[in-house]
Amino acid sequence: MAKRSFLVLRKKRSFQFLVNRKLRELKKIVPRSPIGTDVDTLLRTTAEYICYLELQVLVLRRLSLICGV
Predict the structure, then answer these.
(1) What span, in angstroms and rounded, lies between the C-alpha atoms of 14 and 68?
(2) SUPFAM superfamilies, from UniProt (predicted)?
(3) What is the pLDDT of residue 69?
(4) What is the rounded CA–CA span in Å between residue 69 and residue 51?
């Protein structure tokens, strides 16, 4: 029984490690994300950044249609 709980704990730690590593990478990619940012703020900032990028793509597509590029 103790061996099984150790395996569960080990899997849980490795999952947490992977999540923390992904969050660190996300902080590097998303602008204006301070190092001490909590997860909720980081995800909200990321969502806002994605919306900003989508809007930028939309504007550039419209401009290219207008300019005939």
Answers:
(1) 52
(2) HLH, helix-loop-helix DNA-binding domain
(3) 73
(4) 24
